[in-house]
Amino acid sequence: MNSGGQSIVLATKYAQAFLRVNEKKLQKKEYDAILKAASDLQKKLYLLQIVDAPTLEIEDKMECVKKMLEYYSLPDACKHLARLLIVHGRFGLFAHVLSSIVDLYYKYIEVCVITIYTSCEVTQDDIVAIEKFVANKTKKQVISRHVVSSSLIAGVRIESDQFVWDHSVQNQLRNVSLL
């Protein structure tokens, strides 16, 4: 397994441990805050690497983390998680752990989280129609995020951790070339 795969597995284990202790203590709004922080921090991994710098004292690192937790309105339980990651020298995994916490929470409450890839911006009505399509097929509540993908010529690609539905021109061309 490559180091990226090992990091995901490790982040999932931290998330599972976090949920075992905190699952019943947290409300939906706190999971929403964790999701926002996870998606934002995954775009700013350099912030996590700065906090993970070996030259900083643990208390200085915790002061940075305290400001980060306040900024994202994260629950106090995340402070303990952050300290554990710092002590283990793995604070660089913080965004991935937060993301795994939300993924595991959504599985627990049976929500289907999807990413909708399109070649251009689409209307909110289009997003709602796609969510209804997926909800009808999965029989689950759907939460989506939309990504404009330059790799798509046209069409739609929907991904979750359970399925991929690809109705893009790129996929149709691929299928034609196999004939």
Structural account:
The structure is a single chain. The protein is α+β, with helices and mostly antiparallel strands. The chain is built from 8 helices and 4 strands; from the N terminus they run H-H-H-H-H-H-E-H-E-E-E-H. The protein has 2 domains: 3-107, Peroxidase, domain 1 (Orthogonal Bundle), CATH 1.10.520.20; 110-177. Helix 1 (3-22) crosses helix 6 (94-108) and helix 2 packs antiparallel against helix 6 (94-108). The longest helix is centred in the N-terminal third of the chain and has 20 residues, at 3-22. The radius of gyration is 19 Å and the shape is elongated. The two termini are 35 Å apart. The model has no long low-confidence stretch (mean pLDDT 87).
Poorly predicted residue ranges: none
Helix content: 55-70%
| Content-based structural category | alpha+beta
* Beginning-to-end CA distance, first to last residue: 35 Å
Structural features:
alpha+beta, about 180 residues, about 60% helix, Peroxidase, domain 1, four-stranded mixed beta sheet, single chain, elongated
Put the structure in a nutshell.
The protein is of the alpha+beta class. Helices cover 60% and strands 15% of the residues.
Describe the SSE topology:
Blueprint: H1 3-22, H2 28-42, H3 45-51, H4 58-72, H5 77-87, H6 94-108, E1 111-118, H7 124-138, E2 141-148, E3 155-159, E4 164-168, H8 169-177
Parallel strand pairs: 1-2
Antiparallel strand pairs: 1-3, 3-4
Helix pairs in contact: 1-6, 2-6, 4-5
